[in-house]
Amino acid sequence: MAQRRWLQTVARHALPLISSKPTSSLKPLPHLLAPISLKSLLSPKPLQQFLYTDLTLFHTRSFSSNSRDDSENEEDDGEEGEEEEEDYDSDNNEAEVDDVTVSDMKREYSAEEKEAEAAAIGYKVIEPLLPSDRFFKNREPVFAVVQVGSHQFKVSNGDCIYVERLKFCEVNDKLILNKVLMLGTSTQTIIGRPILPDAAVHAVVEEHALDAKVIIFKKKRRKNYRRTKGHRQELTRLRIADIQGIEKPEPKVDQKQKRAAVKQEEKVAVAA
């Protein structure tokens, strides 16, 4: 198809040379190496003599007999160019935001800054958990409502919760969750205003993980704008070890079990 169009343009410019009265409206092609002669056109291999040497001379042209179509195409090209500029600006803004977040993550914090940011989120790092520590206790009939960041959780001993990624803490670190909003047992409930200053919830960092992928799709109608992105939220898994700040009720002992234990002791004594 391209060779056919090229031959048509060559024939148009060669007609004045062949005819006795050449027209002055047609100008010679600037990218031809030599003037076109009749012998060159009648040769068996005309294409080998008119090869382009400079690739920059190639340009696209819409072959249309209607000038209105050309104007509409130019308007469409202008609108597409504006949309591409807007998309490019939005992509640049997103890239700048990403660069800022990456620089914040790479910034080195002092010990005071780490403690201040952790306190603002609602926790405090104590020390790493040692193998000899007996940190976890049996389940007790106590619950607490704690706030970590902007989320609230109802927890009790032995529970496992997932919170947003906590900075400045590693796996097997002991934490104290300071923002305790409420404590409760089967007999009493203590509500903070807004927090309880004497209450604390001890936890251990078990894992840093990623949540399931979420697809973000954006579209603007009739604007040729579509963006698809994926996101996986960084999470931290905490294991609740102890709740302090309230009197814990003594575990109830079933009378039937107590009587059965006494009877077994008597049987052992009689057999001896």
TrEMBL record:
GO MF terms, alphabetically ordered: rRNA binding; structural constituent of ribosome
Keyword RNA-binding recorded: yes
Superkingdom of origin organism: Eukaryota
GO biological process: translation
Residue span of region Disordered: 63-109, 249-272
GO cellular component, one term: ribonucleoprotein complex
Annotated keywords: Ribonucleoprotein, Ribosomal protein, RNA-binding, rRNA-binding
Annotated Acidic residues bias: 71-101
InterPro entries named in the record: bL21-like, bL21-like_sf, Ribosomal_bL21, Ribosomal_bL21_CS
NCBIfam families: L21 (TIGR00061)
Similarity comment text for this entry: Belongs to the bacterial ribosomal protein bL21 family.
Record's protein name: Large ribosomal subunit protein bL21m
Lineage: Eukaryota, Viridiplantae, Streptophyta, Embryophyta, Tracheophyta
